[in-house]
Specification:
HSP40/DNAj peptide-binding domain, Helix Hairpins
């Protein structure tokens, strides 16, 4: 048999009600899940403490346990039968009948807010929070998903899967909180925290609240102006390049950017990059020589 409830609370056999309450209050504060998020050792310890107090905090159960009539699980002891060990209530639940925990029959008249001194007042269900632990997962999405939204299925370490909705305007580093989708608890389940990671895009990038891209254009289009095809998250569009455009000039494509928190879609900024031909061009080189000889100019930094 596992450690009995007196040993779990660090008390000698026959300890009185006041000592039991004081010991539970001290240890429960130390090992409460709300004070030890993600600490499985403390979580298991808290379950054992709760089961111990479930038994010893009820005068009749305590009397019967001390008399050897029931075992550490609260089950009747029959000749030749040894209990299944302390730590599982009836039905295999660590908190007693039906998983009701501190609302089970062993706690009528017991004020757990008083026992724990309101330490966990920020939790659900009043001063004493017995909500389940939050769980965390990560989901990677494409930039297009932040514009169109979408559905994803994620898996948690405990084997559960969950279908989630990626909202329009989701940002890299954002955390989605799904209420009640975390680990179960006596006062309700915890939350699921979903960390969003937006994969880098080969064309578009986010700069503050703007969506930006570099748009290569040819020398003739930069000098003479022209119509070029520009990619957007919604597909290619025709874009007019003004005559005499330089690298660094920015063209605005309205309504082709990202959604903001208010649900309004911003613009896409196309920064022009004047680009020479990839292969050497003798005619262009001859023109450049003539231009440098007859029409020299020296670009200056703007600032």
């Amino acid at each position: 048999m596992a450690q009995d409830p007196y040993q779990e609370l660090g008390l000698p056999r026959g300890a009185g009600a006041d000592d039991i309450r004081k010991a539970f209050r001290k240890l429960a504060k130390q090992h409460h899940p709300d004070a030890n998020r993600g600490d499985k050792t403390s979580e298991e310890k808290f379950k054992r403490l709760s089961a111990a107090f479930d038994l010893l905090g009820d005068p009749e159960k305590k009397r019967r346990f001390d008399a050897g009539e029931i075992d550490a699980d609260g089950r009747d002891i029959h000749p030749g039968f040894t209990g299944g060990g302390f730590g599982r209530g009836r039905g295999g639940h660590p908190f007693g009948d039906g998983g009701e925990g501190f609302q089970s029959a062993g706690f009528e008249g017991v004020d757990l807010n008083d026992i724990l001194g309101g330490m966990f007042g920020g939790g659900r269900g009043g001063g004493f929070s017995a909500r389940g632990a939050d769980v965390r997962a990560r989901v990677e999405i494409d930039l297009e998903d932040t514009i169109a939204g979408g559905k994803r299925r994620i898996a948690f370490s405990d084997g559960r899967t969950l279908d989630i909705t990626i909202p329009k305007g989701a940002a890299d580093g954002q955390t989605l909180r799904l209420r009640g989708q975390g680990a179960p608890g006596r006062a309700g389940a915890g939350d699921a925290l979903i960390d969003i990671v937006v994969r880098p895009h080969p064309v578009f990038r986010r700069e503050g609240g703007s969506l930006v891209m570099d748009l290569p254009i040819s020398v003739p289009d930069a000098v003479l102006g022209g119509k070029v095809q520009a990619p957007t998250p919604d597909g290619s569009v025709a874009l007019n390049v003004p005559k005499g455009s330089n690298s660094g000039s920015t063209l605005r494509l309205k309504g082709r950017g990202l959604f903001n928190a208010a649900g309004r879609r911003g613009d896409l900024l196309a920064r022009l990059v004047v680009t020479l031909p990839e292969a050497p061009d003798a005619a262009l080189e001859a023109l450049a020589e003539e231009w440098r000889r007859d029409r020299p100019y020296a670009p200056r930094l703007k600032g």
